[in-house]
């Protein structure tokens, strides 16, 4: 008798479990009728369509406030940093072994391709000592001033294909990072020093390491497509006494309002690199 009651109970439990998914008597699925499910799905469809519409409207309004050529917020880095080419802060080579310095020579040659006369003839012959200010146009296409690699003299790679590395008097190119709208006051120039007791002679190209104002302001990558940064070539006139020693060289932007003494940022307006020439 007990066995019969257990079987009945198990049958009722199985029937109740199946009814929780689909109840054939009421037509409910998971406890809801078809009309109830339809109303819930309709509610969520309308709700998520409303959220998508609000998101699209917000993005559309945001995009209306943006300029394709100029970033909206650009006050985080008001002063430019310095960079060097070849792109290494630790330059070590044997002047007697071309394989040891070929990577630096190739890097410099590749970098200076945009400064070739054939490329720079497309740009404008600007007035020295004056900012090259340009009015806004519908297309926002800006002209760029010429900077020919020939102005780097013996560090141009045109007369000395090894940029001085084969004679142990290497050339290093210094350039400022691009900052939209920057117009440095004064007469900016690059000055480099070597941290040692006896000073090392250096040559600067263009003369005195000056960065002409005509290369400012910069209008942005999209608007200023042909723009190239002005360069200063520093030729280190090392002697035999300087060989086989690691020398620390610091270059700074001087003569203007560009900051070069921020202890929190070692590359703001300055850069330090090491160089070692082995005989």
UniProtKB/TrEMBL annotation:
Membrane topology of the entry: Single-pass type II membrane protein
A cellular component term, taken from the record's GO annotations: sodium:potassium-exchanging ATPase complex
PROSITE patterns, per the entry: ATPASE_NA_K_BETA_2
Keywords carried by this UniProt record: Cell membrane, Disulfide bond, Glycoprotein, Ion transport, Membrane, Potassium, Potassium transport, Signal-anchor, Sodium, Sodium transport, Sodium/potassium transport, Transmembrane, Transmembrane helix, Transport
Compartments, record wording: Cell membrane; Membrane
Transmembrane segments: 37-66
Record carries keyword Phosphoprotein: no
Sample GO molecular function, one term: ATPase activator activity
Function summary: This is the non-catalytic component of the active enzyme, which catalyzes the hydrolysis of ATP coupled with the exchange of Na(+) and K(+) ions across the plasma membrane. The exact function of the beta-3 subunit is not known.
NCBIfam families, A to Z: Na_K_ATPase_bet (TIGR01107)
Protein name listed in UniProt: Sodium/potassium-transporting ATPase subunit beta
């Amino acid at each position: 008798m007990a066995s019969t009651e257990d079987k009945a109970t198990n049958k009722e439990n199985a029937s109740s479990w199946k009814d929780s998914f689909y109840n054939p008597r009421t037509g409910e699925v998971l406890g809801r009728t078809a009309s109830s499910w339809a109303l819930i799905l309709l509610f969520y469809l309308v709700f998520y369509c409303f959220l998508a519409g609000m998101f699209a409207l917000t993005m559309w309004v945001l995009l209306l406030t943006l300029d394709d050529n100029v970033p909206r917020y650009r006050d985080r880095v008001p002063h430019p940093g310095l960079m060097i080419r070849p792109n290494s802060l630790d330059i070590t080579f044997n002047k007697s072994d071309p394989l040891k310095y070929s990577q630096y020579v190739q890097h410099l040659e590749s970098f200076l391709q945009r400064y070739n006369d054939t490329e720079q003839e497309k740009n404008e012959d600007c007035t020295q000592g004056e900012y090259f200010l340009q009015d806004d146009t519908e297309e926002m296409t800006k002209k760029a001033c010429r900077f020919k690699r020939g102005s780097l003299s013996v560090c141009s790679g045109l007369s000395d294909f090894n940029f001085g590395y084969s004679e142990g008097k290497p050339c290093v190119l210094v350039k400022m990072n691009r900052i939209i709208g920057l117009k440095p006051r004064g007469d900016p120039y690059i000055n480099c020093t070597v941290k040692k007791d006896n000073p090392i002679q250096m040559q600067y190209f263009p003369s005195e390491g000056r960065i002409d104002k005509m290369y400012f302001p910069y209008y942005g990558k999209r608007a200023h497509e042909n723009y190239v940064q002005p360069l200063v070539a520093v030729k280190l006139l090392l002697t035999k006494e300087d060989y086989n020693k690691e020398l620390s060289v610091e270059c700074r932007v001087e003569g203007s309002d560009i900051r070069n003494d921020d202890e929190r940022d070692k590359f703001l307006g300055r850069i330090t690199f090491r160089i070692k020439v082995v005989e």
